[in-house]
Amino acid sequence: MHATDQLFVDPRDLSPAKTFGLLKASVVPRPIAWTSTRSVDGVNNLAPFSFFTVVSSSPPMVLLSLEFHPDGRPKDSAANIEATGEFVVNTAPASYAAAVDHTSHDFGPDVDEFALARLTPVPSRLVRPCRVGESPVSLECRLHTTLRPGSDRLVIGEVVAFHIASHVLDANGRIDVAQTDPLARTAAGFARIDPITIPTR
């Protein structure tokens, strides 16, 4: 393909929904932050977010981009993080894609998505939200900063603890990504991430 074969699109000419669709199809694959929070009333909440990345390695920080409800209300995850200052990012194994999808639906703030998806809530060490027992890697986080540069709320959390299942560690104590079986988000679906080995010369 040559540059002359490409379609030029100015996002100012598009609706927000069309722009969102282009972003979802362009930025792929996206890792899934299966995010657990707890309300001030003690209700567990679990939801997946694919607008997610690392912000800093020292101190370790991650970022979630959280949409609002159509009427402007914050999603339960955002409200809980704002109220408690804590959350846990759990990696989502591809074998649990159905459960991830189930927890993506819009439930009321009094609904425990762990129970709905038949997942195991495991107490964290340093924060109040539970970890997902079925997740091979979990990051306990404390809220560092919230920003709103555009339509979404950006939540930056400092990772205060890692939990890593022993079966995903290699002989050198490093995480073997293939063993975590990471689930990724594409434009509007899920995909597995398979490592590619580049031959040495």
Whole-number mean pLDDT: 94
The biggest sheet, with number of strands, parallel, antiparallel or mixed sense and barrel status, is: 7 strands, antiparallel
Taken as a percent bin, the fraction of beta residues is 25-35%
* CATH fold annotation: Pnp Oxidase, Chain A
How many DSSP H or I helices? 5
The backbone outline, from C-alpha atoms, is: globular
Provide the low-confidence segments as ranges: none
CATH superfamily: Electron Transport, Fmn-binding Protein, Chain A
Number of domains: 1
What is the CATH architecture assignment? Roll
Strand order of the largest sheet: 3-2-6-9-10-5-4
Overall CATH class: Mainly Beta
Give the radius of gyration. Answer: 18 Å
Structural class: alpha+beta
GO molecular function: FMN binding; oxidoreductase activity, acting on the CH-NH group of donors, NAD or NADP as acceptor
InterPro entries: Flavin_Rdtase-like_dom, Split_barrel_FMN-bd
Domain Flavin reductase like: 25-178
Keywords: Flavoprotein, FMN
